[in-house]
Design goal:
alpha/beta, about 300 residues, about 15% strand, two-stranded parallel ribbon, Rossmann fold, Epimerase_deHydtase, NAD(P)-bd_dom_sf, Epimerase family protein SDR39U1 isoform X1, 11 helices, 7-stranded parallel sheet
Length: about 300
């Protein structure tokens, strides 16, 4: 597929990562159709997709998913169901559309999360490491990835397990920017927990690479090469330095649990050391392999 224009259908294409991916794909000559809540120009709704099926395309990507760390949403059964449905049900809908398509696409890419791997201060995880069955988030990723499986399909499947996505105008940075700009930022809890991260341009780049590389399939870790050495405290210090501010005020673990609830707080107070082993072996070349360079571009 490399070198030839593709028609790509992107679930959740209007979100933070979706906008960056769309921009990259179009800059490389590919056509993009979004699947979102409402239809429109270059866009179909989820309801329309279920009713009329997949438009003729060469590849499908799913990025859909409710923001788990939305601080304005209380962590409870209703929000949990929304988080699961926004990921698993949209993936099932796209997988069914691929199965039912008269002319199925040749590539099917799903972006999930490194929450699949068990939080640990010391263990290092590659794409071959086990996981997926020890807490709400790991089980969510397992269900999400299982929903994408299409046995015997001509569409080769790729799963990108993403770390914390760093970029301008959305994602984690948008929630942290003002406290840090005001000199009120700092590490969460002990600050020693691993902080698996990736620049948004690299996450979009890995997805594009997966679409354009005809032989690529299986799991790719979407984390920067140096992220396995990044702790939450390191991130807080580097982010503050990029803004020319101090990072003196650690946020106590109890405060994180009070805002997000115990189950969600795990995502912030614990972490995984993840290596992009297969991603690098596949030939992907990171634009932002180190944190200082990534943050400099974001706050410039």
């Amino acid at each position: 597929m490399r070198g030839s224009a593709m028609r790509v259908v992107v679930g959740g294409g209007t979100g933070f990562v979706g906008r960056a991916l769309t921009q990259l794909l179009r800059s490389r000559g590919h056509q993009v159709t979004h699947v979102s809540r409402q239809g429109g120009k270059d866009r179909i709704s989820w309801e329309e997709l279920s009713r009329t099926g997949l438009p003729l395309c060469d590849a499908v990507v799913n990025l859909a998913g409710e923001n788990v760390l939305n601080p304005f949403r209380r962590w409870g059964d209703a929000f949990c169901r929304e988080v699961i449905s926004s990921r698993v049900e949209t993936t099932k809908t796209l997988a069914k559309a691929i199965v039912d398509a008269e002319q199925p696409p040749r590539a099917w890419v799903l972006v999930t999360g490194v929450g699949y791997y068990c939080p640990s201060p010391t263990a290092e995880y590659t794409e071959d490491s086990p996981g997926g069955n020890f807490d709400f988030f790991s089980r969510l990723v397992s269900s999400w990835e299982a929903a994408a499986l299409i046995p015997g399909s001509p569409a080769r499947g790729v799963v990108v397990r993403s770390g914390v996505v760093l970029g301008r105008g959305g994602g984690a940075i948008s929630q942290m920017l003002w406290p840090f700009r005001l000199g009120l930022g700092g590490p969460l809890g002990s600050g020693l927990q691993p902080f698996p991260w990736i620049h948004i341009r690299d996450l979009a780049g890995i997805v594009c690479h997966a679409l354009e590389s005809e032989c690529l399939q299986g799991v790719l870790n979407g984390v920067a090469p140096s992220s396995s050495a990044t702790s939450n405290g390191t991130f807080a210090r580097e982010f503050a330095a990029a803004l020319g501010r101090p990072a003196l005020l650690p946020v106590p673990a109890w405060a994180v649990r009070a805002v997000f609830g115990a189950e969600r707080a795990v995502m912030l107070l614990e972490g995984q050391r993840v290596l992009p082993k297969r991603t690098l072996e596949s030939g992907y070349c990171f634009i932002f392999p180190d944190l200082a360079g990534a943050l400099k571009e974001i706050v410039a």
